Amino acid sequence: MTLYLNINGEDRAFHGDAMTPLVDVLREGMLLTGAKAVCREGFCGACTVQVDGIPMPSCLLPAGLAVGRAIVSIEGIGEEGELTPLQRALEDHDVVQCGMCFPGMVMTLTPFLAANPNPSRDEIKQAMVGNICRCTGYERIIDAVLSMQAQKETAA
Ligand code: FES
Ligand code: FES
Predict the structure, then answer these.
(1) Which of 44, 69, 107, 114 is the S-S candidate for 48 at Cβ 3.0 to 4.6 Å?
(2) What is the whole-number distance in angstroms between the Cα of residue 73 and the centre of ligand 2?
(3) Looking at ligand 2, which atom is closest to the CA of residue 97?
(4) Does residue 121 have its Cβ closer than 6 Å to ligand 2?
(5) Ligand nearest to the CA of 90
(6) Which atom from ligand 1 is nearest to the alpha carbon of 60?
(7) Which residue's CA is minimally distant from atom 4 of ligand 2?
(8) 139: Cα within 13 Å, side-chain hemisphere
């Protein structure tokens, strides 16, 4: 079966079973390996992509149900070859260690910050509840997000 999926603004053909999890379509079918398949049960958030602007675990979304939706993976955000301000802040705070959680974290926090550009510490914690990081203890991630606000205030 051939399915046409809109991925990062391009229509891409996937030849395979409509029940194939989207994370496998991205990683194996499209060679977009940013989304990580870790738990495959919807718990860890490492496979998060945006579906019509909403962060979702791509391990739980069959390819057939992704047809007609706008899928954005970590490879599709920001300018090509450039880090987004969020990615830069996370890097500056040494959040990227093993790196397994990082793409999913960015895909969750990006729409959250677009909707809520000045979140409190607790709101950031709530936003990340579906993204597990085994390396950082989360505080540096929260500090990185808060540092973006501080930078904006300094620039204003
Ligand atoms: S691999 Fe999808 S949520 Fe963990
Ligand atoms: S940096 Fe290793 S799981 Fe988050």
Answers:
(1) 107
(2) 18
(3) 1
(4) no
(5) 2
(6) 2
(7) 133
(8) 1
133 phi and psi angles, rounded to 5 deg: -120, 125
CB 33, CB 73: distance < 8 Å = no
3 state SS of 6: strand
Sheet holding 10-15, edge to edge: 10-15, 2-7, 70-72, 48-51, 54-57
Q: Enumerate domains of the chain plus CATH numbers.
A: 2-76 (3.10.20.30), 85-155 (1.10.150.120)
Task: Report the alpha-carbon distance of residue 117 to residue 13 in Å, rounded.
Answer: 36
Length of the chain: 156
Is the pTM of the predicted complex or chain greater than 0.70?
Answer: yes
Q: What is the mean pLDDT of residues 150-155?
A: 70
Tens-place pLDDT, residues 75-108:
999 888 899 999 999 999 988 889 899 999 999 9
